Amino acid sequence: MVFFYCFCAATVFAEEITVSYATLTAAYMDHIVAMEKGYALEEGLNVKVMRAGGGTATQTLLSGQLHFSSSAGTALSAALRGGLVKIVYTNMSRPTYRLVSNKPEIKTLQDLVGKKIAINTFGDTGHLATLLLFKKYGLDPKSFLFIAVRNEARFPAFVSGSVDAAPLSPRDIAQVGPLKGHILADTTKEVQLVWNGVAVSTKLLAENPLLVERFLRAVAKGREFARLYKEPTLAMIAKHTPSPLDVLSLDYDTVLGSMTEAGWVTDDVLRDEIVTRGELIKVTKLPEPGQLFDYRIIKKVYSELKKSWKPKP
After folding, report:
1. What is the pTM for the complete model shown?
2. What is the CATH number of the domain that holds 61?
3. CA dihedral sign, ordered 76, 78, 82, 84
4. N or C: which end of the chain has fewer CB within 10 A?
5. Is 263 found in the same domain as 119?
6. Are residues 64 and 17 in contact, defined by beta-carbon separation less than 8 angstroms?
């Protein structure tokens, strides 16, 4: 399902742009703050929010009906298949999953060989993070049986023992805690990948780089405000994601630990992900990172902000 709403101001100087979000949770607090604090409006931008999953958002981006997509991972898969999109900003690079088992006999990653691992969908962040984790430790991903289990069914499958392990978020683990599930690995400390950020069509990037810069400057300002001021940021997130404060606080802390330093990641991290995504979607001819990513604008934005700008509460 897709729906729209607008962070707009009655000004003739503001340009309307459409940006897609799968959700407006703490993972997108850089964008939320950019809109709520007026940083986007300072750049002369009225943001029309499109609520849509990554697949729909990427197709809309490719069609030219969307300016920016926050589903950078899905856009990257499309780019690997030849889609004319580029990732211009990476907000989070450390997946916040812990690989958890509820079986006492499974104590190490090696013990999982030949066992069943429940993921939400094939190719999602939890799946990809687990694959990168296994590769890091020299384990063949083909030695494990990944099973796609709908979100609402993963807990019953985990608790009942019908699966042997699952990548779970800190919020998930808070619920599993009393069930004595034990953590085999923390992907936040072990691997990096392109989680969320901003994707743009190569056409827009080539024809209107100034628009991309204005939007990324607003988002970067929102990001730095969110990093420094937790309480007002939680209040802004709560407008879009009504949840208990302790849950929002846990999500905020989790996202903070996953953020990149300045909106981009290195080529070696990108190459690892390109190879692993390529294997998942069966792309044999893999491009270099420079064909899929363009961090020049976000690097410029951060360089300028560090010299002349600080967030105020």
Report:
1. 0.89
2. 3.40.190.10
3. negative
4. N
5. no
6. no
